[in-house]
Amino acid sequence: MEFLSFIFLLPLFCSFYLIWKWVAAKRDKECFILDYQCYKPTDDRMVGTEFGGELIKRNKNLGLNEYKFLLKAIVSSGIGEQTYAPRIVFSGREESPTLADSISEMEEFFFDSVEKLLARSGFSPQEIDLLVVNVSMLSSVPSLVSTIINRYKLKDNIKVFNLTGMGCSASLISLDVVRSVFKSYRNVNALLVTSESLSQNWYTGNDKSMILANCLFRSGGCVILLTNNRTLKHRAMFKLKCLVRTHHGARDESYGCCTQKEDEQGRMGFFLGKNLPKAATRAFVDNLREISPKILPVRELLRFSVVTLFRKYSRRCGSTTKGAPTKSVINFRTGVDHFCIHTGGKAVIDGIGMSLDLTEQDLEPARMTLHRFGNTSASSLWYVLTYMEAKKRLKKGDRIFMISFGAGFKCNSCFWEVTRDLTVPGEGNVWNDCIDSYPPNSLANPFMEKYGWIQNEDESTSKLPL
Questions:
Q1: Do 428 and 120 form a contact (C-beta atoms < 8 A)?
Q2: Nearby residues of 418 by Cβ (< 8 Å), 6 or more positions away
Q3: Cα angle, residue 327 at apex, residues 326 and 333 outer, rounded to 5°
Q4: Phi and psi, residue 33, nearest 5°
Q5: Which of 280, 271, 300 is nearest to 344 (CA)?
Q6: Alpha-carbon gap, residue 81 to 77, rounded angstroms
Q7: Among 330, 364, 334, 333, CA closest to 349
Q8: Are 183 and 423 in contact (CB under 8 A)?
Q9: CB count, 10 Å around CB of 87?
């Protein structure tokens, strides 16, 4: 009888064991952010109106038309007077950069932010199991990953990934690499380092499609400490819920809209094509189509489906009211509390806000980050996140939607859950010394006040340089 009972219970015990093992394995694959550190360059690298004007005047390849274009671009960019540039432009050597300049630029960021993050978190370099670095426009030998390993003497069996050419959405690609490793290994601590090298890519020619990058891109970076160790869950700030990557590189039009290249005179820079907005919209729509079912409640998805079907039926029957909107708008605020938008430029922020029907409060973190730090490429999202934290808006259970764009053309997005109240900003928050002054009364750029007279200049009588 006991033997029969054992035979009967054995499958049940096995089932419980397999379920327990599956649940434990799934929990080991979770991805948490323990801490992160955004980089604030020193004040001697700050680009104010006075220095910005001097920098433009130094470029002897510019004429009156280029001055007018730059004035319009800078004034409408949404960037303020406290953004940062690489040291090479302050020493007046932007026309003759070297590889050493680019490496020095990255080392200044690495050695400041990695050190601060490790010290604050209490982690020793030997506890880091995975290192992922993304800097799109710099590839050196030894690699940038090796630079960090050498500096902090990380262990010799550390797993490393060095990503280049991934554009402004590279930090979420790096995050996907971390997540993939977490699925295969238990109790891993990862360091994600994201930045951009501008030293060798500060454009000194007169091609308007390449000059524009100088008006938007600024120095910055972020270091993020992640883990899938369950015993550290209580220390986590955020938990990754899902991540979606969309790549339109197979489309020639999308592929060529953002490229690092040389102009006709051989000057290196970053080209931004006129079809960029169209490429971004296509990638954005495809990305939303995939991530929406993962982050929105069923009731909103059902409402959206019903409204869409009704409008399609109405159009077929010819009963649609003239002038009525024909596009269904899904309400992302039903599943999202905070929107962390890439600071690609004022037009990018406005476009996402219009597409998702967001309020000015939803867009405020991205607008203020663009104003204070500019477009810091792949690290931009994390400056936006620190703004939310500094404003004491992040509470346990809140949901954060991150959206980024990058060359290729790519749109990547992810969804986070806040795992503890973050109403007391951390000591490493780059906004701590200025958050009380944001948002300012006006985002007007003083360039117009100082250089607005250029608009009335005539090419035949203009006294250039300014």
A1: yes
A2: 237, 238, 394, 395, 396, 397, 398, 399, 400
A3: 145
A4: -95, 120
A5: 280
A6: 12
A7: 364
A8: no
A9: 18
pLDDT at site 53: 87
Instruction: Give all domains of the chain, ordered by start, each with its CATH number.
Output: 31-303+327-444 (3.40.47.10)
Provide the residue type at 438 as one letter: Y
> What is 235-299 written as a DSSP string?
G-SEEEEEEEEEE-TTSHHHHTSEEEEE-TT--EEEEE-TTHHHHHHHHHHHHHHHHHHHHS-HH
Q: How many CA atoms lie within 13 A of 397 on its CB side?
A: 0
Biggest CA-to-CA distance, the chain? 110
Mean pLDDT, the chain, rounded, equals 88
Q: Half-sphere exposure (CA, 13 Å, Cβ side) for 365?
A: 28
Reported in sequence order, the residue ranges of 112-228 that DSSP labels E, i.e. its strands, are 130-135, 159-163, 189-195, 221-227
Sign of the CA dihedral 6, 7, 8, 11?
A: positive
Q: Of 422, 236, 256, 261, which is closest to residue 338 (Cα–Cα)?
A: 422
**3-state SS, residue 449:** helix
Which residue, 327, 353, 434, 443, is CA-closest to 390? 434
Neighbours of 59 (CB within 10 A): 19
Q: How far is CA 49 from CA 95, 150, 446, in A?
A: 21, 39, 7
Query: Can you tell me whether residue 226 is helix, strand or coil?
Result: strand
Question: What does the CA dihedral 268, 272, 274, 278 come to, rounded to 10 degrees?
Answer: 150
Alpha-carbon gap, residue 124 to 37, rounded angstroms: 16
pTM of this structure: 0.90
Spatial neighbors of 414 by CB under 8 A, at least 6 apart, are: 172, 175, 240, 241, 242, 243, 244, 401, 402
**110, 148 in Cβ contact below 8 A?**
yes
pLDDT given for residue 325 in this prediction = 41
Catalytic (active-site) positions: 168, 247, 338, 342, 371, 375
Length of the chain: 466
Could you give the angle at which helices 64-75 and 49-57 cross, rounded to 10 degrees? Answer: 150
Q: Which residues contact residue 316 at a Cβ distance below 8 angstroms, ignoring those fewer than 6 apart? A: none
Q: Per-block average pLDDT, block size 10, for the chain (466 residues)?
A: 58 56 59 97 93 89 87 88 94 93 96 96 96 95 96 96 94 97 96 96 91 92 97 96 96 91 90 90 94 94 83 66 53 94 92 92 96 96 97 96 94 97 83 93 82 73 56
